[in-house]
Structure formats: C-alpha cells, structure tokens
Amino acid sequence: MKQPGAGQTRRRGAALEEAILRATVDELTESGYAGLTMDKVATRAGTNKNAIYRRWPNRLALGIAAYRQLATTVDLPDTGSLRGDALELLRRANRHWSSPLGTILRELMAAAGGATEFLAQLPEQADAAAAPWLTILGRAVARGEASPEALHPRVATVAIVLLRNEFVVRGVPTAPDDVLVEILDEVYLPLVKLRARGRGA
Question: CA-CA distance, 15 to 185, in Å (whole number)?
Fold first, then answer.
C-alpha cells in the first residue's frame, strides 16, 4: 500500500471512500466516463487501486457511485395545473440531460447496457425517479384534474420515459421545446384522461 507522505494521516473507512469518490467526480467532470480509469482516480485520491477495488468492483460501479454524488434534488414545480407542472419537470430534465452532467449520465447508461443491477443505482432510473411525477399527479387528483386511477407509476412517468428516449435512442443533444409539448399534449395528458374513462366505463 502506498505510504502517506509527510504530514499526511493514513485515511481509512469513510474518509478514504470520500476521497476516492471526490477524485472520481473530478475525473468524470474533466474527462467524462470514457476517460475514467482506476489508475487516474487512485493517483488523484492519493491511494492505490486495491483500495478502490475493495469498495467498487469495476469502473462502472465507481462511476455510478460518483455520479450519485453529483446529482442534486430540486424543489418540485407547483404551477397550479398538471400540464404546467409536468412541462416544467420535462424542461428541467431536458436541461439536465443536455448538460455536461447529462452527458456523463448517458455515458454511464450506455456502459451499463442491460445490466439492471447498475442501472437501478442511477437516480434517474431508480424507483425514486417516479416520486416527483407521482407527486404532481397526486396534486392533480386532489384538484380534480385527474382521476385516482391515473396514479400508477407507469402512467405518471410516461412523459419522462419518452423524453429519455429522445436522448438514449435517438441520440439528440437536446430536445426542442415543441417535442416536450407534443409529449405532454399528445401522449401524457390524454393517457391520464383515458385512465379515468377506462375505469368508469
């Protein structure tokens, strides 16, 4: 194991883990996932690769753990209408996916492929991703804009899934605002209304 330099204290446990994640965040920010290597992270963190591999089995797991440090939680919009709230959520997601951080996210998703054990660790992919959409849909139900039958995770998240496809499947660098409006007006809102009619028939 690399010996600490003069005046340094050997880090262990949480302190070492924090240093590794901080170094990984810096590497991702500077070089993206494509440029991320265990060697670079170890050098930047002042440790060795064995210390990293004991915590994360490969660079994808390490990259995802670091990305989770970068992801932030923002307050939900409250415009007074389901359409307004959903459009603002989509616009925020579009800005995120179009940003340098969004580029890192797309690289991580591409590297993960169909490995659900890794994808599930991404905030945008985890069950938690449905929470804001269920919240704004729940507000709409309380206002009488939507039926309680619409409160289903797949219904709530269909808009964000369609936006994600623009980036992941179509490979667009950003989605035009008219695409966001189309997703809402042609798919999401009609689906919410259809759930009420379908259950009431």
Answer: 49
Helices (H) and strands (E) in the chain, counts: 12, 0
Contact 54, 109 (CB under 8 A): no
What value does the CA radius of gyration of the chain take, rounded to a whole number of Å? 21
**Top-confidence residue, 171 or 40:** 40
Nearest CA among 142, 126, 137 for reference residue 159: 137
For the chain, percent helix, then strand, then coil, each to nearest 5?
A: 70, 0, 30
> Do residues 160 and 180 lie in contact, with contact meaning Cβ atoms separated by under 8 Å?
no
pLDDT over threshold 50, residue 3: no
**In this predicted structure, which of 78-92, 118-132, 139-153, 159-173 has the lowest mean pLDDT?**
118-132
Label residue 140 exposed, middle or buried (CB < 10 Å: 0-12, 13-18, 19+).
Answer: buried
